Amino acid sequence: MVHLLHQGNIQRSTKIDDDYNSLEQVTDALARAGLESSNLIVGIDFTKSNEWTGARSFQGKSLHHIADNQQNPYEQAISIIGRTLSKFDEDNLIPCFGFGDASTHDQQVFSFYPDEEVCYGFEQVLSRYRELVPQLRLAGPTSFAPIIEMAISIVEQSGGQYHVLLIIADGQVGQLSPQEKRTVEAIVKASQYALSIVVVGVGDGPWDMMREFDDNIPARAFDNFQFVNFTEIMSKNADRSRKEAEFALAALMEIPSQYKATLELNILGARRGLEINTIPSFFWHIKTFTKQ
Question: Which of 34, 124, 153, 221 is most buried, most CB within 10 Å of its CB?
Fold first, then answer.
């Protein structure tokens, strides 16, 4: 049994510069900061709000719109993160899941391939995504709990290898909802494992709840959650390669210190997670979610 750690006590952050012009420079910076190996898991949001949350940022099209000559925001985010982390993934096998469609709602996830067969490299993730999108019926509501719980089981099955769960979503979990309660519980549980969670927000938002998840969830063994606003970064007036580097860095800059935290907590290589001796208070009851 472990006592809860105040965020920051175990994670002595490694300084990473924030001025890069290419994804290769970001990859090198992550390696210098101490990231040794990482396995990627991908979760994609197929809730119905994707049909309208690109009104401003994606010319009014569905965020899952498939075109021959243009990647949609989901494809762009997968490609950028995949290229950045591929150096750290020895086998290049990527389990991929969807959630929020009419078959899963807020209760389950579906695998991109039958029998939870994985994708080989981010290129296959992209090609399979394009095959699946026309077959799916978007639904909801939004909950990150099922994909986080699936990621935890993958870490357990791997013998405690370090994984990064990349969730790409167009909307946030409803405030004060059962989905929020279950998502918070899943994030807290995930901090007992060698697992980092990166949520990429695509579309128009809003994102205030995701920032609260990033900053204010209590009762975690280490700070295991990072949110980044894809739209905000990629809409800047700058070179494409520079924007991609800025996005990758914003999404992944906490990964080296989180990786080190799993070492210091002795959960890297552990099949079972830590036992935390405090049940999390649901933070809407203690007014954690007061806007600054």
Answer: 221
